[in-house]
Every structure is written in structure tokens, then in C-alpha cells.
Write a structure and sequence with these properties.
The protein has 719 residues and is an alpha/beta fold. Helices cover 33% and strands 17% of the residues. The chain has 4 domains: 11-95 and 278-340, Phosphorylase Kinase, domain 1 (2-Layer Sandwich); 108-272, Transferase(Phosphotransferase) domain 1 (Transferase(Phosphotransferase), domain 1); 362-481 and 635-680, Rossmann fold (3-Layer(aba) Sandwich), CATH 3.40.50; 485-607 and 697-716, Rossmann fold (3-Layer(aba) Sandwich), CATH 3.40.50.2300. The strands form 6 sheets. Strands 17-16-18-19-20-23-24 form a 7-stranded mixed β-sheet, with helices on both faces. Strands 1-2-3-4-6-5 form a 6-stranded antiparallel β-sheet.
């Protein structure tokens, strides 16, 4: 939850706004009080959608459809206005954590509780389908937990069965990792699609993993359509029915009636795993004391004057004046009667003011340890240590801080076994809040596994192996995309600047296990915009002469090297030059080194690390680094600096909950660093460089890589 911003309205359609619950591509969700004084979640649609001539008709129709629901396990629409300047919709508020947040904080669910969860959700889907709807976005973030059972929320993209006019086939809606194969293909969906999503949710709750892994949306969608689900860890008594739910073909999945018969009736006694009842009770009984907002400024984000005729400064029925909620209302909330209040929480499941508290006296500040794990002999680790120390130093010099930070390093020795030992050593120390995994693809997966077992938040800065796509990321967050998603910087360079008639992907099979997913994403999901895309496979240790000659028959074709070894990329470069190729040549970060740097003049290479000496946005950081360490920052220093500051931001937001709530806070809302923006899908929890940046383009010249641009600035940026 966030405070209202100056550009936010004070009231919408007679509902008094109190805070922001979240925002997305469609609009902003607010915590609001209805004209009768009841809390609700109110979504205001962004103006660009409202300006679409057909949008209002679709919005009105879908609000009417969602209003049909009134069962025990769904959260109804309580008010809506499709004709307002900015259309809005209010739903009942459920003061409980989402299933996604509960898994992240307390781990996987035992079989008995999984069965009860499944029983309630199967009944919820039965209610939805009986009302003639398909939910189309069943995922852990849309399941809220209360003492008397779960609630299925967010019918924002629900569709009436058979109402294909509301959305044309070919579009993809829903959340990657939980939507069905037919959704991923943009085809018409029916009730069986929700059954598939339910299977994904149950598998996630049983294992702590997204059933089709993590990574970029395109890679997750590909695995959803073409690859089997990861059900390792699902209890044997549930695995067969979950596997049937995840059949690729809709007609092979069980219906909700069969699911209800299999899972039986829901009972509230003992339905929550250990630890969650106390958490829900504590958060549900916390006193809400949000002040009535001051009149706000017209304009900016959604949205200016309040829809339905109420603009900034207006008050609606039920407002209690400048003092905020009435004493009666606050008492009602404090006694636990909030269980009857209103609105889908959008992941914001406890209510507290986000104002900056006065810093505690120095003697009362807690001290949190930030661990940094990597190989001390590695220059990239030294760079990350320097960047991390700068962030810690700056934090500890802030007079408004509410806690102090200490940096503690551990050496992984460059091996997986050493990484496991190093992680264990950090965990054994006192006051550990987070571990920054600064190692390589050979070491970080082992560290992530070890830290997950101890429920320690891990932030991965450098590693990009596809092994992290399906690792148990219950307590880890990647601060960059894995290589499965491909190199965003060079893809934008090709698509926006080179614009070739044909692009040739040279797939070096020496590392096929690590590169095949990227090649599939580029070719299957069309990340290359060239009219023609050709894949040339080269066997491990084979030469590139024959491939280069075929490419040179069209000398201006662009070449994308899909491989990991600098010497192999250098060999391709020599073959292309000898064959007379003159087109653009691009590759990804792993090729930087050895003979490739010395020979591959003119190649463009994408990385996930910035150049603080050349990127104008990093001048302040570079100056501070020189002042503290006496030298300019090396690659990966700025990324580690961002990692520490991101962790400090999360700890500050967590307040008294401290490290136990850190990962949940980091997932809750986007945060802007100096190198990239960090935001995560609540279900899949993947980092998307196409959306959030953090990718950089370099040119090889004179035996070195020279910074060219951030990916989001290539070809005029996203605007």
C-alpha cells in the first residue's frame, strides 16, 4: 500500500480514496471508503483505454458479468461506472494475504491443506462457470486467504462463455505461468482453461515453484505450450489429478464437477498451514487509521477530476471529515470485524501508513547484515564488493535511517560446493537479512538452493543461466533476466536500427542445453522483426566455414550468434570476414573475452552491466565510487550498488517485520535503481528486461568493448 500521490483524485464516484493498493497497465487500484463507509478496492481505468470507442461497451458488459457472482468463494463487484470520464469499478475488500505472498513468507503447503484449498477453489470455479463466466486469470496472487477459507478475486479479464466479441482471437490475456496453452496461443478459451490454471496454482502451493519455471514471458509461454510441467514435489496423492489438470488439450482435463467430487467438501477447521492463522489474525485486527487525503492536483496519472462528477477535494456520502475514519469505524476494524469489509487487495493485505517515521535513537536502531557471496579472486566480485560497500556507506550516513547495515562477504571458491558452504556460513551469522549472490552460473544455482532451504532472501545480480528458470525461487529474486529471454539490447539494435531484410541465427550446439530455449524464443515468438529469420545450426566443435559461405550469398544479412564461448564466436567472425559478409553481427555477454575481443571488430554485444564511466545517468555514482575507493567503478559495481539499495528499500518498507517480510516487500511495488527498474509479476516473479531495462549495448573496437547505449534508449526508446 502507498500513500496517495498529488495527482490522484480525492474521491471517485462518491467513494473517498485513502491509499494506493497497486497499479498496472489498465489503471490504478485504490483503497476507498464507499458512501456507506465500507472499505473497498476501487480500480480507475487509464485514460488511453477509456478513449477507445469500444472499450466502454466491453467494460460495461464485463462489470455486469462479474456482478453475477455472489458465492462464498468469490469477491463481488459492488459498484461500477462505465460512463465516467475515467471508468471505475469497486469490489469487496478481503483483508488477508494472497496465496502468492503466503507461499513466499511461509513456504509450501502440506497435502491436507492443499486438498482443502483445492476443494474451495474448485467450488469457486463451479460458481464462476455456472454464472456463464471464465475467470481467465486464476493464479496465486488472485487467491486471498482468510480464516474461513480462500477467496478468488480480480475478474478484470473475465469473459462470458462464448462471448468472443469481447476479445478477438489472437490476443493473449492472463498471467504467464498460470494461463492455459490455448490462452498462450491466443485462442478461444472455456472453463477448461481455468482448470489448467488451478492445476498450476496447486502445483505452486505444493512445491513453491511456478510449474513452467520463471524467466521472460515469452519463454514461460513457450514452455506452457510445448514442455511438460514440473511436478517434482507434488504429494503422490495429488500428483495424478494435478497432472490431468495440466493436460495440453482442454478436452483431456477433468471438469470442475469431477474436481469437486475428488477433493470433497471444504471445512474451515485446520485448513491453513502452520503460521498462517496467526499472521492473518494479526493483520486483520490491525487498526486502520488512514487520514482523509488533502485535496489533490488535477491531471497527471489516473486520474484528475474524480469520475462520476467528484473531483479533487470533493467529499462523498459517508465521509467523516478531516479526521479520517470515525472512531466507530476504527473500533470495528480493530475488533476483527474487518472480515466482513470490502475489496480485492491486489496483494496489499495489511493496512498501515507508509509515512516516513521519525528515526529511532542511534542506540535503538537494529543492524542488518547484507551478505555478498562470490569468488574473491574474481574481478567481477571485487567490483560488486566495491559497489555494495558504497551503498552501505551511503545508507549508514543517512540521518533519517531506521536501521544500520553491515556488509559481510563469503568466498565460494568458484565451485558449487563452495557456494553452498559460503551460503551456510553467512546464514550461521547473526542478523543476516539478505544474501547478494554475486557469483557465476556455475555457483549461484547451488547458493539459491541452500538459501531457499533456510528461508533467506537471495538477490541474484550476475548469473543468467537457464538453470535458474526452474530453480526453487521461493526466497530468491533475479535482478536480471536469464539468457532464456535472449539479449534485449542486441535484439532492439537489430529491430530498431539495423532493420535487416533477413536475420540469420547461428546456433552453436556446443552449449545447446543453455542456448536452445533462447533460439526457440527468438524464432517461435518472433523477437526478431526481420521479414525472414533463418536458423543455422553448427555442431559442437565443427567449423563455421560452410555456414559463413551460405550467409555471404546475401552479404547484408544480419547475424546473431547464439552461443556462449568467446573462441567459437571469434571463429565465426573469421569465417564471415573471409566469406565476404558485410552485414551487422551481434552476440550476447558470455562471448566477451579472449580472441573475440581481440578480433571481432565492429560486433555489437548486449550485456546486463552498465558502464559507469560512459553512461551519463551514472555520473553521480561514478564520482561517489572514486571518492570512496579511489578508482572508477568496474563492470557489475553499479548493479551490486543497486542490489544493496533495493534490499534497504525493502527492509525500510517492512518496518518492524524486518527480514521476514523483505522478499514480500520487494515484490510488492516497482522500485527504480540507477541501472534498472525492479518490478515482478506476483505469480511468476520473473524480471522482464523488455519492460524494466537493465540491458546495455556495447561495440567491439580496438580489442575492447565500448558502451553505446542502454537498451531502452536504442532507436528512440519506447516512446
Amino acid at each position: 500500500m502507498e500513500r496517495l500521490r498529488p495527482a490522484d483524485p480525492s474521491a471517485v464516484g462518491g467513494h473517498r480514496l485513502a491509499a494506493r493498493l497497486g497499479s498496472g497497465g489498465m489503471g490504478v487500484v485504490y483503497l476507498a471508503r464507499s458512501p456507506l463507509g465500507v472499505w473497498c478496492a476501487l480500480k480507475v481505468i487509464r485514460a488511453e483505454h477509456a478513449d477507445d470507442p469500444g472499450f466502454r461497451a466491453r467494460f460495461r458488459r464485463e462489470a455486469e458479468l462479474a456482478a453475477r457472482l455472489g458465492g462464498r468463494w468469490t469477491v463481488p463487484v459492488v459498484a461500477a461506472d462505465a460512463d465516467a470520464a475515467s471508468p471505475w469499478l469497486a469490489t469487496a475488500y478481503v483483508p488477508g494475504p494472497s496465496l502468492a505472498d503466503a507461499i513466499a513468507r511461509h513456504g509450501v503447503w502440506p497435502e491436507e491443506q492443499l486438498r482443502l484449498l483445492a476443494a474451495a477453489l474448485a467450488q469457486a470455479l463451479d460458481e464462476v462457470h455456472t454464472a456463464g463466466l471464465v475467470h481467465r486469470d486464476v493464479k496465486p496472487a488472485n487467491v486471498l486467504l482468510t480464516a474461513d477459507g480462500p477467496r478468488l478475486i480480480d475478474f478484470g479479464i473475465a469473459r462470458a462463455v462464448g462471448a468472443t466479441a469481447l476479445t478477438a482471437d489472437g490476443s493473449v490475456v492472463g498471467s504467464p505461468g498460470y494461463l492455459s496453452p490455448e490462452q498462450a496461443r491466443g485462442r478461444t478459451v472455456g472453463p477448461a482453461s481455468d482448470v489448467f490454471s488451478l492445476g498450476c496454482v496447486l502445483a505452486h502451493a505444493a512445491t513453491g515453484r511456478a510449474v513452467f519455471g520463471t524467466g521472460g514471458a515469452a519463454a514461460v509461454l513457450y514452455r506452457t505450450v510445448h514442455e511438460p510441467p514440473d511436478l517434482d514435489g507434488v504429494p503422490p496423492g495429488l500428483a495424478p489429478i494435478v497432472r490431468r489438470c495440466l493436460e495440453k488439450e482442454p478436452e483431456r482435463r477433468p471438469g470442475v464437477a469431477e474436481l469437486r467430487a475428488f477433493f470433497g467438501e471444504f471445512t474451515a477447521d485446520g485448513w491453513l498451514p502452520e503460521g498462517l492463522p496467526a499472521l492473518i489474525a494479526a493483520q486483520a485486527t490491525r487498526v486502520v487509521d488512514l487520514p482523509v487525503p488533502e485535496p489533490t492536483v488535477v491531471g497527471g496519472e489516473p486520474g484528475g477530476p474524480g469520475p462520476g462528477g467528484t473531483g479533487p477535494g470533493d467529499t462523498g456520502p459517508g465521509d467523516t471529515g478531516p479526521g479520517g475514519p470515525s472512531l466507530t469505524r476504527r473500533r470495528l476494524l480493530a475488533t476483527g470485524s474487518v472480515l466482513g469489509l470490502t475489496a480485492a487487495g491486489a496483494g496489499a493485505w495489511w493496512l498501515r501508513s507508509r509515512g516516513a517515521p521519525a528515526p529511532p535513537p542511534p542506540g535503538n536502531r537494529p543492524t542488518y547484515v547484507v551478505g555478498l557471496l562470490g569468488r574473491r579472486a574474481d574481478g567481477a566480485f571485487t567490483a560488486q564488493e566495491h559497489g555494495a560497500r558504497l551503498a552501505v556507506d551511503e545508507h549508514n550516513h543517512d540521518p533519517a535511517r531506521t536501521f544500520d547495515l553491515v556488509l559481510r562477504t563469503a568466498d565460494d571458491g568458484g565451485t558449487a560446493e563452495g557456494s553452498t558452504r559460503g551460503a551456510a556460513g553467512l546464514v550461521a551469522g547473526r542478523n543476516l537479512a539478505v544474501v547478494i549472490c554475486a557469483g557465476t552460473n556455475a555457483t549461484v544455482p547451488a547458493a539459491v538452493t541452500a538459501l531457499t532451504r533456510t528461508r533467506t532472501t537471495a538477490l541474484v545480480t550476475r548469473a543468467d543461466t537457464s538453470l535458474l528458470d526452474s530453480a526453487n525461487l521461493t526466497t530468491a529474486l533475479l535482478l536480471r533476466p536469464t539468457r532464456t529471454a535472449g539479449p534485449p539490447a542486441v535484439l532492439r539494435h537489430l529491430n530498431r536500427e539495423v532493420k535487416p531484410e533477413r536475420a540469420v541465427v547461428v546456433h552453436d550446439l556446443s552449449d545447446a542445453a543453455e542456448t536452445s530455449a533462447f533460439v526457440r524464443v527468438v524464432t517461435v515468438f518472433g523477437k526478431l522483426d526481420a521479414p525472414a529469420v533463418v536458423v543455422e545450426e553448427v555442431a559442437a566443435n565443427a567449423g563455421f566455414t560452410a555456414v559463413a559461405r551460405r550467409i555471404a550469398e546475401r552479404p547484408k544479412d544480419a547475424v546473431l550468434f547464439a552461443g556462449l564461448r568467446p573462441e567459437r564466436a571469434a571463429s565465426l567472425d573469421r569465417a564471415l570476414r573471409e566469406a565476404g559478409h558485410r552485414g551487422a553481427r551481434v552476440a550476447d555477454e558470455p562471448v566477451l573475452g579472449g580472441r573475440f575481443l581481440a578480433e571481432a571488430e565492429g560486433w555489437m554485444v548486449g550485456t546486463a552491466y552498465a558502464d559507469a564511466g560512459a553512461d551519463p545517468r551514472l555520473r553521480t555514482f561514478a564520482a561517489a565510487h572514486r571518492e570512496l575507493h579511489g578508482d572508477s567503478p568496474a563492470p557489475w559495481a553499479a548493479e551490486a550498488y543497486d542490489a544493496v539499495r533495493f534490499a534497504a528499500h525493502g527492509l525500510a518498507e517492512a518496518g518492524a517485520d524486518g527480514p521476514s517480510a523483505l522478499r514480500s516487500e520487494l515484490l510488492r511495488a516497482p522500485w527504480q535503481g540507477i541501472t534498472r527498474r525492479f518490478s515482478y509479476d506476483p505469480g511468476g516473479q520473473f524480471y522482464d528486461a523488455d519492460r524494466d531495462g537493465g540491458a546495455f549495448l556495447y561495440r567491439i573496437s580496438g580489442g575492447a568493448a565500448h558502451f553505446v547505449a542502454r537498451a531502452d534508449d536504442i532507436g528512440g526508446g519506447d516512446g
